[in-house]
Amino acid sequence: MGTSKNVTPAEAGVQTSSRPRIVVRGRLQSGTRNEILDSGFRRNDEPGITFKDISIIIPVGPGENALEALLDDLRPIEKEAELIVVRGASRPKQLNDGVRRATRDFLWFLHADSRLAPKTLGALLKSLGNDPHALHYFNLRFLPGGPPLMFINEIGCWIRSRILGVPFGDQGFAVSKEIFETLGGFPENVPYGEDHLFVWCARQKNIRLRCTGVSLYTSARRYAETGWARLTWDYARRWTRQAWPEWKKLYEKTSNVRQVS
């Protein structure tokens, strides 16, 4: 069982500043909380989803040291959103344990090495407000420092998620807690791809997938360490092998529905 804790950036050791900061591809952007939120979605007095309705769940694995930067990105909403950092155990167990601790109606899953773009926060509220019953995700971009061919992975991710309908967990899933529980959470009995299988389960249960239209950034460190070609091929091989039986289930279900109608 992993350990989870509700924290603030200050508690995690991040130094505070008078103006919240967001880093995108190494460029530091400053702004007040309202300026950052309004860059993607202007909030007003009308009823709607706010960050007071959202629990943010961040699993942290061994050797991950990028958490403080992410917490710094989240500082504009630290007094509203519920922030849950989970350490120890396997990734799917961390995620499910975080959900069990969550007290809000909506869940936003972020990897510890994720970074926010200026419009990320506002786009999330807008997307959830437009379709609270969907599974939401972001476009994926890679931070600098990785191999020069990472743009190919960005294009491949766009095709996989937007055309094939298979986003991955590093694209920042956001979903209502009610739908999460309907889907049974992340499978804990698989060696990899719990996020991938979670998406297939959503599709098989007719849960809509919705892209926020805004990017979420992630580290390319593993590609640099392992080698671009080797890791890209390994990811492609594993997800396609895992996707085939899930696609067959979806196809059979769709065919049965057509026959009944």
Radius of gyration: 18 Å
H-E order: EEEHEHEHEEHEHEHHEHH
**Annotation field: number of helices:** 9
Average the pLDDT over all residues and give the rounded result. 84
Question: Strands of the largest sheet, in order across it?
Answer: 1-5-4-6-9
DSSP E strands, number: 10
The level-1 CATH class: Alpha Beta
CATH topology, by name, is Spore Coat Polysaccharide Biosynthesis Protein SpsA, Chain A
Main pleated-sheet profile: 5 strands, mixed
Strand content: 15-25%
The count of domains is: 1
Structural class: alpha/beta
Low confidence ranges: 8-46
Q: Do you know the CATH architecture?
A: Alpha-Beta Complex
What characteristic shape results from the CA principal axes?
A: globular
User: How helix-rich are the residues, as a percent range?
Assistant: 40-55%
Q: Please report the distance between the alpha carbons of the first and last residues.
A: 45 Å
Write out key terms for the chains shown.
5-stranded mixed beta sheet, 261 residues, alpha/beta, Spore Coat Polysaccharide Biosynthesis Protein SpsA, Chain A, 3-stranded mixed beta sheet
What do these coordinates show?
There is one protein chain. The chain has 261 residues and is α/β, with parallel strands linked by helices. The chain has a single domain (3-260), classed as Spore Coat Polysaccharide Biosynthesis Protein SpsA, Chain A (Alpha-Beta Complex), CATH 3.90.550. 40% of the residues lie in helices and 20% in strands. The chain is built from nine helices and ten strands. It has helices at residues 33-38, 67-73, 91-101, 120-130, 150-163, 177-182, 194-204, 221-226, 228-260, and strands spanning 3-6, 21-24, 27-30, 54-60, 82-87, 106-109, 115-116, 135-142, 174-176, 209-218. Strands 1-5-4-6-9 form a five-stranded mixed β-sheet. Residues 8-46 have low confidence and may be disordered.
